[in-house]
Structures are given as structure tokens and as C-alpha cells.
Amino acid sequence: MAVAGTTKKKASTKTEYDESISVSEVSAKIMKSKTYRAVKKDLTEQIIKAGADTPVFLSLIETYMDFYLTKELCALDIKKRGVYVEYQNGYTQSGTTDNPSIDKMVKANTQMCKILATLKISVKQTTVGEDKEAEVDEL
Per-residue pLDDT for 118 more than 70? Predict the structure, then answer.
């Protein structure tokens, strides 16, 4: 936790990040990352190449990118808090449970796959191959 008047050193790897920044700031950094922009560009180029660049399909790409962002935020939460998280329901009731981000990440990935199927985009067609470790180095 950051104390008023102090600043926390920014992390240098993707697995560590400054806990004092908000979710919206982390989201903005992910959306500015090379991988995020490359995925969006690649999907857009593929539907244009297929002649399917209609408002409906372009909107699906935006939806896909929303799920991508959700998946990345979940991944960061899992790296930060782990697979199991502690809970306390009352004065005497506490324990550990599965991190809810795991379930959310699985659901986001499922929806992303369904969108790719709707867009008729397969893994064989993709060209994005950048190293994810270099993408968001200040989280």
C-alpha cells in the first residue's frame, strides 16, 4: 500500500506492477501496448482482406478487444494475488477460495474464441507473434 506523500517505484516487469495505480490506468497502459494494437490491427486487416469490413464485424472486433482487456486484467490479478485468495465473511469466518479472476479469464477466452469463429478467423491466419513480456513493462 502506498502511504500519502510517498511514491512507489515503478516495476520493470510485467509480473510486477505499481499497486497504487488504478484499474483504469492499468487498462490504459494495456490498450497502449504494442501487442494490444497489433492484435486489433491484425484482426481489422483480416476482415478487410476477407471483404467483411461491415459495421457489424468492426463492432465485433471492438467487443473482442474488450474481452482481450478483461483477460489481461485477470491475468495481472492472478499474478498479483495468486490462484487462491483469502476471504473473511465475518469476525470468525475466513479462509481461502479460488481467485474469481480465473473463472472470468476462462469466460473471456471462450467469448474471444467464439468471436474469432464468427469472424471466420483461425489461428493459421494470424500474424501477431510479438513477445508479450516486452509489451507492458511498467505495470
Answer: yes
